[in-house]
Amino acid sequence: MAAAIVETRYGKVEGLTQEGMQVWKGIPYARPPLGSLRLRAPQPPQAWSGVREAKEFSAIAAQPVNAMGGFLGRNATPPPSGEDCLYLNIWSPAADGQKRPVLVWIHGGAFIAGSGADPWYDGASFARNGDVVVVTFNYRLGMPGFLYLDELGGKDYGYSANCGLLDQIAALEWVCDNIEQFGGDPANVTLAGESAGAMSIGILLAMPRARGLFQRAILESGAAHNIQTPEEATSQARAFLEQLGLRENQLAELENLPVDKILEAQQLSIRNMRGAPVIDGHLVPGKPLDQIASGSAAQVPLLIGTNRDEARLFTFMSGRQPTVNQQEQEHLFGSRALEVFATYLQARDDHSEANAWMDIVTDRVFRIPALRLAEKQLPHAPAIWMYRFDWPSPAFGGRLGACHALEIPFVWHSLHIELSQLFIEESPAASPIADTMHAVWTAFIRDGNPQTDALPDWPRYQLDERLTMLFNEQQQLAYDPQGAERQYWDDIL
C-alpha cells in the first residue's frame, strides 16, 4: 500500500505503508557526487516535477566487496554500491503534521563500509513502539569520503576535506528543513550512531557547522578520538596517489577514474581506519576533545556507552587466536606494563591472558575514549548517562563475549534479523534485554532522559561516583566499573 504523498522542498515523494508504518526510501538529500562533484562538498539535490517514488533503498556508498572481511563469513550477495548514494530513508507513524521526536542514525563500518539500509536499522520498531520518526542515510566512505588534498593540491583545486562529514551535515540540514512534513519535530532531533557512526558524532559535537542541527546524542562504541592530523592524512593521500600511479600535479585525474580503481587503491593504502576524518582547520578546527572541552557542544545531553568485550569481535573475524602483544603493552604503559597486565588479569574470572589483553585493547579503542568524551562534556552538558553492555553472546562457543556491535539488535529490537540470530542463537534471555534497551533508548530520544520503570534508579554520570548502567539479564547500576583498570589510563589518550 502506498504511503502518503509528502511534499519536500525539492518535490513530492510517495513511499509505502509497511506493517502499519509509513516508509519512504531513497529520498535524495544531495546531488549525486559524480564527475566534477567527486571529492567536493555535497550540493543540494535538483528539484523534480510530479511525484517521485520513494519505495526502494538507493545504492549504498561505494565500498569494497566484503570490506568488513565478509562479516563472520556471510555469503549473502552484497547490495548494489556506487557513488550515487546520497539518499535517506524515513519511517514514521504518519505524515500528519504532528511534531514527533526524531531519531537520525549514522551507520558504522570503520569509515569504509556500511549503509543506512542495513536490516539491523529498520526504523519501524522505534516508529511503532515509541511514536518516533526515524531517519537513516548513506554518506561517502573511504577515499571518496575522507581523502585530504589540502597540502598537495592547495585551494586551486577546490577539493573538500571530510566529504563524509559534510554529507552527514547535509543530511541533518535536510531533516531540519523537511522532517515536519513527515510527522517529525525539527527542534527535537536525537543524533545516534555506533562505531564509526558514533565516532562521527564525537567529531560533529566539535564542529561549528553542526551546532543546532540536533538537540541530544547517543554514542555507542565510539567517541571523539578517531581523527587524523593533517600530516597523517597527507601521508595517507600520498600513499593513495602512489597506488593509482598519479603525481601531485595530476589531481584532476581523480575526477575521471572509475570508482573500482579508487576502491582498489584504497584497499592497498588504508590501514586501521586511517581513512577517517581529519583536522582540516576549517570544518574541524582542532582536536575534537579540545573543542568539546571548550564548550562546542554546550547543552547537548549525551547517552554514551561501550560493550564489555568490544575487541573480541575483531580477533574472531581475523581468524586468529588473540595473543598478548607485549611490545604494544610496553609502548602504552612503559615500566608499569607488567603491573597493568596483572591488574587486568586479576579482574577476569576466567584468568585468560588472551582475554585480559583483549580488555586492554577494548579500553584503548573504545571505553577510555568514551570516558574522556564524558569528562570533557560534563562541565557543559545538562546531563550525561553512561552505560555498558555486558550480555555475552552464546554463539561460536562463547568466544565473542559482549563484543563490538552486539548491542545493535537489542537497541533496535531487531533480534529476528538473520544476522542477529547468528549472534543470539535464539537465546531466551535476549528478548527481555531487547525490550528494556529499546525502551531506554526510546525514552532518551523522546525527552533526553533514559530512565524507565524497568531500570533501577539511574542518576546522571558524575566523576565522583562514575555511575554506569550495566545491561545484562539483570540490569545493574555500578559505581565506577573497571575503576582499577581505568586509573592506569589517566595520562594516556
UniProtKB/TrEMBL annotation:
It holds the Pfam family COesterase. Residues 4-487 form the Carboxylesterase type B domain. It is an enzyme of class 3 (hydrolase). SUPFAM superfamilies: alpha/beta-Hydrolases. Its EC number is 3.1.1.-. Keywords: Hydrolase. The keyword Hydrolase applies. InterPro entries: AB_hydrolase_fold (IPR029058), CarbesteraseB (IPR002018), Carboxylesterase_B_AS (IPR019826), Carboxylesterase_B_CS (IPR019819), Type-B_Carboxylest/Lipase (IPR050309). Belongs to the type-B carboxylesterase/lipase family. This is Carboxylic ester hydrolase. It comes from Dictyobacter halimunensis.
